[in-house]
Amino acid sequence: LAVNQSTDRSEGRIASGSIRLSISALDHLMTMVSELVLTRNQLIEIMRRHQDTEFAVPLQRLSHITAELQESVLKTRMQPIGNIWQKLPRIVRDLSAELNKTIDLELAGAETELDRQLIDMIKDPLIHMVRNAADHGLETREQRIAAGKPERGIIKLFACHEGGHILIVISDDGRGLDIDRIRAKAVSLGLVSETECRSLTESQIQRFIFAPGFSTADMITSISGRGIGMDVVRANIDKIGGTIDVSSSRGGGTLFTIKIPLTLAIVSAVIVEAGGDRFAIPQPAVLEIVRLRHDCGPRVERIQGSPVLRLREKLLPLVDLRSLLRIGDGERDETRRGRLIVVMQAGMQSFGLAVDGVSGTEEIVVKPLSAKLQGITVFSGNTILGDGSVILILDPNGVVQSICMPSQAQPPSSQSPDVNGEQPAKQSILVFRAGSPSLKAVPLSAVTRLEEIDAATIEVLDDRSVVRYRGQLMPLVPVSGNMHIKTEGIQPLLVVSVDGDRFMGLLVDAIVDIVEDRLAIEVVSERPGLLGSAVINTRAVDVMDVGYFLRLAQGKPGEIEAVSERVAA
Amino acid sequence: MNAAMQTFTEYVTVTVGGQLFGLPISRVQDVFVPGPATVVPLASPEIAGLLNVRGRILTLIDMWRRLEVVAHPGKGRNLAVGVEHKGESYGLLIEQIGEVLNLPAACLNGGSLNLPQSLARVSAGIHRMKDKLMVVLDLDRVLDPEPGGKAGMAFR
After folding, report:
1. Do A328 and A275 contact (CB within 8 A), yes or no?
2. Which pLDDT belongs to residue A221?
3. Which of B115, B139, B156 to mutate against chain A (most A CBs within 10 Å)?
4. Under an 8 A CB cutoff, do A390 and B50 touch?
5. Lowest mean pLDDT segment, chosen from A256-270, A408-422, B33-47, B97-111
6. Where does residue A486 rank: exposed (0-12), middle (13-18), buried (19+ CB within 10 A)?
7. Residue B120 contacts A, CB cutoff 8 Å
8. What is the interface pTM, i.e. ipTM, of the complex?
9. N or C terminus of chain B: which is more exposed, having fewer CB within 10 Å?
10. C-alpha atoms less than 13 angstroms from C-alpha of A491 in its C-beta half-sphere
11. Which residues lie across from A311 on neighbouring strands?
């Protein structure tokens, strides 16, 4: 089908020189070609297992034709980047009038072509950066003359093809980035500690402008500095698998380098294995793959229990893919000899990902995740591999987020930010006693309210207790089976929301404390209602499963009996 | 009987955890035996995996877990009903597929029945039949992500 459509197209072109096509027709063509590429890969995979068959030659031909077809369909989607530059001269002219600066805009490489989809996605970031350069980058006329510079400021845009990428360079000859202010801002935002800051190079400090929420602009003007900063630009470029970097010298201007892939539709991916499953990592994010060895090369060290990869005098946070995804047999040993570590880059952060194996690279067509799965940030999509199986695509940014989450939640002064392996974030935890002197806990977020009721108001029905609460009958469930429900005095209660406006009450003996700590369950329990044991504020506590009691309160008699039996036994 | 004046709806009946459920036939695309699926780590337990069905990626939903019914031991989860929802393909894992029933809309009871919360959330009503009751599933509500964001990491 795809082949036919393509020939139709080219014939049409011969007839009239050019034709207008709807974008959806092109998109459909692209999808079909992508499927064809997948099928071709599938055939090649089969061929690997069967040597010396008569299919080898035609398959090779098919493979060539597919590659050529793919290339020409990609070409039909290409547009010159100049299309989005057309607006810029006017924007800059307006800005120069508004800011009272004289600005020259130089554009080069406008004929550089890239995928229509990418054009759409980099349009806003590019315009934003040009505005930034005009507003913050370039000095006023007086400042420029005082600095001995020509009165006219220059903003340059340059685009070209480089390998499989498009390179876009945006530069100005303005005042450059103010390192001291960036440093001060980074420290005040808690991105680094003051001591760490001293050991950073200038270019490392400059890259903080891409950090979330970062803006050194004190003045909010109508042009820029409205909260959408370079972090948003970077996020947009990350989204399309690109990278952005900055270099600047004081008084000498700023230069941004953006590197983006030629097309979004088909990407090359490294296929890795962990815990018996396979996952795809987009190749642009992979810097290198190293193997741990006895004698030389990269080593794994531990800082307060968190593994750190020592690679050519650089320290990188290391995470085991198995523990990140909670798969496999739970045996976590990132340090074992012979393990493969994929060194990856996401945004500014490089890190190591320990995997069980690497089974090669493959061209993949990224398909979005089902809506049911979009809450999982470590995956960016899924695809079908050459052998027909479905594989999940890891999102390097999502992986970084889940590694670095705990470190961002804590004050910047404690430890270095990168080395907190895979601990959960700190949260408020409610500690209480019920049924026994030992401590029990639930995350405070699971509890709607803490109440104390008069025990005399508790009404006992056949097999359950209820109380009138906010105009409704609220079921009460003791947290522990061997708890004595009071008949007089004050009864403390954890009110849990069942659904919006209906509640249930968890009966406890006493509320002990609310603490801020990580809720890391170390000993998992099989007992219903009990998730396991954790250490909170240096004391061991039982972590209760609120969801279990919710189900209990919704009346599943079978289960309640089963529980009381088990508790009695 | 004024059967001619009544509107009828056709349902595909399926069994999950011994309970009879009805799916509107207009939404059911096919019934198939799923092959080995790709497990999705960190997904909510009702996600049974991802499957390649004729070049499309399909999300398998474990209906026992989705409806929070007790699983019947011994009965394999080896049958799936293919449905489409908002342009995405899903496979609902079930125990058994039953006959197609053409039932008058008048026999459909509203939601005011004493159903467990987990069922009330996804049901469009209950059909009284001679010997048993059939819970009609609202597929949109079965397949829409839970507002609370059940998917994703439990403890973070």
Report:
1. yes
2. 46
3. B156
4. yes
5. A408-422
6. middle
7. no
8. 0.83
9. N
10. 26
11. A314
